[in-house]
Amino acid sequence: MSHDNHGGTKKIWIVFWILLALTTVEVVLGIYKPVSYDILKWTFIILTLVKAYYIVAYFMHVKHETKSFAWTLALPTFILIPYLLFILLTEASDLI
Amino acid sequence: MGAKATTESVWRGGVKPYNASYGKMMMWFFLLTDALTFSGFLGAYGFARFKYAEIWPVAENVFTHFPGIQGDQPLIYVALMTFILIMSSVTMVLAVHHGKNMDTKKVAWWMGFTVLGGVIFLGSQAWEWMHFIHGTAEGALQLADGSIAKVIAAGTEVMGQTYNFDVLRLGAEKFITDPTIIATLTANAEHIYGANMVANEYGLPQFANFFFFITGFHGFHVFTGVVLNLIVFINVLFGTYEKRGHYEMVEKVGLYWHFVDLVWVFVFTFFYLV
């Protein structure tokens, strides 16, 4: 365990507050629906991806792994998941 | 340093790829495949949800209960569940942090809190399932063609008018107010309550199928995580990792536990918000 010096628990709590704030924003938007559904839908998806980034980077520590390891994990995710979703959502719509 | 020496040390496990331990790396690769599985599920859900956009139940009209409070409380309960899981993710990362400093007592405390958070989350999910399966007191009519109609009691205002007989509501806002059509539709209708794999009083049965399958699969992950966390917690209490000289096991179950939280973030968005 070489690089375990990340300055106490302050960073952890900052990430917690970020996640809590983003979730609160999502819930408030979900209850009051101030804008159209299309805008709302993409807002939710973007906020979710931001939350996912914080969890993976800080809680799961990828930010402190080697660059090559981070890319090994990121590339399959960023290539295969969009591809899978494309197949499911776009191609399968011919079945309707 | 010839090529031979390098090869030898690789085969003896002397080289750590990416400077990560074998166990940690394999946990990551497992999580990567698991992420693809969940993407497949949520993608299939998204497909069905937009294919049947007009008649798909809106989650916030389905999950409206909060313990101890009467009336409609959309999203609040599931927001609380999300908070519990995020919180237990924080306690987990704190356990990992103190593990690196070899602070057994603090690791034990935070691992304990993590287990507790997981158990509370599972209990919350059971409560949510129970309400979904039991449904509302008034239930709904399943018409002969399989569609769901809510019965609106006589005297309730419907689109600015009141009727002295029960009218029907199809989907979110399609009202049937013609007595002869109502009589035809209800002739072979069946009264159903709650949701199961074949019928769903809130709308399409597919919604219930996806709900049970995806939240069930996630719940199973949470359950597995709680069991693993508990085993590690007990090992911390027995001083197993103290003797071993490092707390990497806490880190590995930590990765799994954060992944469970990560999946829930997506389930929350796609099931309850979008």
Q: What can be said about the biggest beta sheet of chain B?
A: 5 strands, antiparallel
The interface involving the most residues is between:
A-B, 46 and 50 residues
| Main beta sheet of chain A | none
Strand order of the largest sheet of chain B: 6-5-2-1-7
- Helix count of chain A, per DSSP? 3
Q: How would you spell out the order of helices and strands of chain B?
A: HHHHHEEEEEEHEHHH
Residue-averaged pLDDT of chain B: 89
Give me the CATH superfamily of the largest domain in chain B: Cytochrome c oxidase, subunit III, four-helix bundle
Query: Distance between termini of chain B?
Result: 58 Å
CATH hierarchy, class of the largest domain in chain B: Mainly Alpha
> Termini of chain A, distance in Å?
54 Å
User: Which blocks of ≥5 consecutive residues of chain B have pLDDT under 50?
Assistant: none
Mean pLDDT of chain A: 88
Low-confidence stretches of chain A: 1-6
- The SSE string of chain A, one letter per element, is HHH
